[in-house]
Amino acid sequence: MAVIIDEDYSSVQQAGAGIASAFEQLIVKYQQKVFSQCYFLLNQNRDDAEDAAQEVFCNAYKNIGSFKGEAKFSTWLYQVTRNHCLNILNKAGRDNMSLEDCTKEMTSNPQTVNPVDDCVRSKVRQLEEQHRAVVALVHFDDLSYEEAAKVLECPIGTVRSRLNRALEKLKPMLQECVE
Amino acid sequence: MKCEEIKEYLYEYHTLRLTQRLFLEVDDHLKTCGQCQQELKELEETINLLNRAKPPEVAKDFKDKIMDRVGIDLIPANKKPHDTVMLNLSPNASEKYKDYIAARDKVSEKTEPKVIPFYKKKPYRFALQGVIAAMVVLAVATTIKLASQPSREAVTRGVRQGIITKDACAEAIQLYNEGTLSRDLALKEKLLSDALSQRCEDKKIQAKIHNNLADCFESQGKIDTAIEEYKKAIEIDPELATAYISIGDIHKKKSEIGEAIKFYEKGIRLITSKLLNEDISSDEITLYKEELENAKIELEKIKTLSK
Fold first, then answer.
1. ipTM metric
2. Of B49, B92, B242, which is closest to A177 when you measure between CB atoms?
């Protein structure tokens, strides 16, 4: 039987030993995916997402020594990203900044001039966090159901049902954007 | 499958994530079911619209901003300034590298005089600590900003001297994974042999390359060569359970029952102990559990046959 080694094994080991170029390689490889996760979890605000993604990589660097290789590096990084974003959302909640407030801020953020795109984004923002997370991981970041299940710490069947549920909810909502 | 079940798999069907068997099953159903065809059409429309929410590209200076912060903000507090640029030692650093640092620190401890200077005594200590801390931070920041090039050279020297095995393992792993995933057996053999020739010093990696090369020889019907490679894998990493089970499989096929039992039992013992100690990655747990069940079934079969 053949066995696979985590493709990032060597870079992680070198980054853990303080070799800057190895850590740079990991950033380049995962920056878009980490940013994308933050973007969807933090209400599609580009600036917030970029700040959060930078924090994620800094935290990852600080803790790379404690990464024991029990999961793939990419899975671990997604988990760090998810936890960081959930902390931000919780803190925003504690500071009385509701998601509704965030949404209002977003509407005034001229990210795109296309009204349909804006509408689609606002509908995605209305999904529950767990549905947004699975859409981001599986649909936009193209993770397998198995890896998404590891990141979300749930069974593969739950990933499938959450994604189907999210798409089911989006179906009438997105149609409103083109009617 | 009923329509409700088909509906569950439509996203995976559309994005080509299904296994061949399931794909064909859904495909066959769709050819004759108007209701599911309509579901698929609506799903495709939803996905097309959803794609308009694709996140923007990350900023071009994203990486540089992080590297600036990592260099200055995140130097572990317990490290000496000359360690911080290249040597942030972590549990993931190679053993040789750790030994090297430990030996070097031991030497410097021995050579330092044991006299307690006045500034370590109260009341000077607290006042001076603040000043020294500020100077250290300044020195570290300057070192990183101005001296990153020499530090990289120092790392390269370390690699050349065998203190850190760097690019060899990265190359080996890349070739190894490409080889393992290749369906062309000749290409697979070449890539895995190339992976071996990288001379990565990590024994776990070496053993896995030998194991997969053995698996490749086995698929080509070169059974004796396969056994040799599996044994090399075991010699390098005596805990590579999967190699024992693979040898057990070969002996079983050759009706060498005694040998088969010996290798299956050893493999099963190792996997059980790995699973109990959770000394493996979550990916491997799934793989090993399946391997363990199959090995147990095979062992029972041959034990029954040999009675």
1. 0.85
2. B49
